[in-house]
Each structure stands twice: as structure tokens, then as C-alpha cells.
Write a structure and sequence with these properties.
It is a single chain. The protein is of the alpha/beta class and 431 residues long. Helices cover 46% and strands 11% of the residues. It has helices spanning 2-8, 18-34, 37-43, 48-59, 73-76, 85-96, 102-105, 110-134, 159-171, 192-198, 209-221, 243-248, 273-289, 315-332, 345-352, 374-383, 397-402, 418-430, and strands at 143-148, 176-182, 225-230, 235-236, 266-267, 295-299, 337-342, 363-367, 386-390, 408-412. The strands form two sheets. Strands 1-2-3-6-7-8-9-10 form an eight-stranded parallel β-barrel. It has a two-stranded antiparallel ribbon with strand order 4-5. Strand 9 (386-390), helix 17 (397-402) and strand 10 (408-412) form a beta-alpha-beta unit. Helix 9 (159-171) runs parallel beside helix 11 (209-221), helix 10 (192-198) packs antiparallel against helix 13 and helix 13 packs parallel to helix 14 (315-332). The chain is elongated, with a radius of gyration of 50 Å.
Amino acid sequence: MSKKKNENSGCGCANIPISLILLVLGGGYWWLNHQGGFAIISKLPQNLPIAIPQNLPIAIPGLNSTPAEPQPSAPTKPSVTTAPSFPNSPIVKPNHQPPSPTPITAQKPQKPQTAQKLKTPIVKPNHQPASPTTQTPLEKKAIRGIYISRYNVTNNASEEKIRKQVRHYHSQGINTIIHGVWGNICPMYTSEVMQKTFGYKSCPNQFRDRWLTWLIDEAHKHGMEVHAYFEKGIKIDKNSPIFDLAIERKWVVPGVDRTYPGIEHYILDVEIPEVANFFRDILVEFVQKYPKIDAVQWDDYLGYHAELPGKVNRTKKLTTFSQEMIGAMKQANPKVSFDLCHHNPYWAKKYFAADWQKWNVDRVFIQAYNDKNFTKEVDYAETYDGIAITDQQFHRLPEIVANNKIKAILVFPDRTNPEDVASKLKQFYVK
């Protein structure tokens, strides 16, 4: 039975009648003959039955023309790397064209920005070492200062005018303004210490407290410094509003100081505790009232004249007073520099009892107003922080500017408008 089942299995073609088969074959021949079927077949490519089964699975990827491996290519299609090569071409093109599509603009703006930030600090130092070569010899001086008298500012001054003056000095190459704030034992600004001690709030003047504030603010905007000048130091003349009070209280040393011709000075005795406390409190008050001031500067009037009556050596007492006053100022405002514009140490100690080398000062500028002794003063200026001259000594500027050992030049106009002096100074070193 099993054998019969096996014999009868299949498609059953043997059971189709022969007559039916002949009928189908005959009909097909008739159609080809009468409908032009043979002509159509003759026009077909001879290899058509071969090209279709052999090239069809390989022609779709369009990557392999070898007919020997169409069948195993099906499992290896995912490993073909040529398909990602199509997006590779647009990536190469944007590299040549800066305005690239969105996938690149999302990344590349960050790269140039970060690179630019890293380059900026490098470019600036590269310019700074080169700048000294373009600077004039005078511009290489650490301090190029000009003195402005405490009476230079008038009641017509305004904030706009003061700021404009500062910008003018800056444009002329000045980097330090030395502004008078004190003289003849009275301040230009309003002082509670002065009011309490003598009943005067300030010298009789039109000076306004805010003027110095505007001056400092504008100077700092341009990288300049402002030094407050305590002119005449501890000396007084008859034009001072407190002269009579000082004589009455016996605050002055006996005798007349005729160091400078044309005016008689008297010197307050700093050995008297009340006098010493007054100066100390004045200085402390100032650096607290104007905390942004860069320095205070005292001149050779902080000293006694050797020709005063009696053979009295006041050097030690003056040293003690100066040390205590400077110490109190530093405690009140450590950022402020205490400077001197004084005679050389030999002359200062011998003729003015001013042994300033022991005063703990920050900077010393040597006065070289005496043109006959100029060469020797230059030697001292080289040793210390700079030199001070008047505008009448501009003929000395070539040798001063050319001297690399002199670090600073201070110019004190002699009855000349400081703005004009600054312009004259610039004309000199531009040539």
C-alpha cells in the first residue's frame, strides 16, 4: 500500500488526457503564427533569458559586476562601506566652502570663537614688547608729572571743564597730575580738623570738594595718577588766615626763615604735641576724605632752615615727627604712597634738618631747581625715584630724557599756565 501511495504522489500530470495536451499545444502554435509572436521573439536579445536571472540581484546595489558571486552577496550587503560614501561627498565640499550647511554651522562657529579667545591674550603681549620701540624716550619714563597750583582751579570750573583738562594733559603725554591741596597751613578743601583747631573750614578760596573727586575719577579712566601736593609743609607766612593765631599760641619756632628771597617764612614747631597732632590729623583726614588718591607729596618746606637763631639740632625731632605722621597715614589708608620732592639727602640734612632717608617715605624726587648745581643733582636723581625741574629748565630736557637711569620727571610751571607747559613739553619730545 505504501508503494502505491508513493507512485501516485506528484502533480498528477499523467492523469491529463493526451487530447487536451495536444489541443493546448496546437492553440499556442496557432496564436504565435497568426499574431506575430515569432517576430516578437526574434527581436528580443538573445541573452535576455540569461541577463535577467544573473544580473538582477547585483544590479540593484550597483557595486559589484562579478556574476560569479550574486548568491553569497545577499548576506554581505550590510558590510559594504560604499553606501556611506554618498554622504561623505557633502562633508568634503563644506570644508572648502565656509558657508556650510546646518550640520557644520552647528559645530564650526564654536571652533573659531574659542580659537579667537585663546589668541587675544597672546596677541596683546606681542604688541607690548614691541611698543617700547615706538615710544619716545620721554614716554618711557615711569612718571611724567605736572604740577597744578592749588589756585589754578577757579570758581568758574565745572565738572566738564575739569574732566576736559585731565584729558588734555593725557593727550600731551602726562601720566601724573600733582595737584595742590594744602598751603600756608590751611587746606583748600573743607576740613573738620581745621575747623575744630582754628575755626576755619579751609583757606579763603573758591575750591570745591568735588573738584578733586572729579579730577581723580577722570584721571583713573585714562590710567593716570593724581598726587596731592602739600605745598609749604610746616611753614607759614603773614598771608595765612591762621598766622596771628599761630603766633599767639607760640606754635612757631623763633626767627625768620629766609630760604627763598622775597618772602619771610615762619616754621611751626613740630616738637609741640598740639602742632604734631594737628599735622597728623590733617593728613589722616585727607586720605580718608579722598581714599582714591594715589599719593600725597610734601616738599622741602617739611624741614627747618639752618640759619634760624641758636645752634639747635632739630634733626632727630623732625625725624620722629615725620615717622609718626607717615605711620598714621599708612594706617588710615595703606594704599596711598607718601612721596617727597626734596633736596638731595646731603643738603636736606645739613641745611634743613631733614634726614628723610630715615622717614620711611615711599618715593623721593630730587629738586634740581638750582641750575648751577644741576649736574650733581642729576647724580642723586639717578639714585632715587626721579627729578623735579621747572619749565624754565627745558633746555635741560635732552640730557634728562636721554638718561635711562632717571625714572621720572616732574615739571613745576613757574608762573605759567600748566596746560601750556604740557603742550610745550609734548612739542619737545615729539621732535
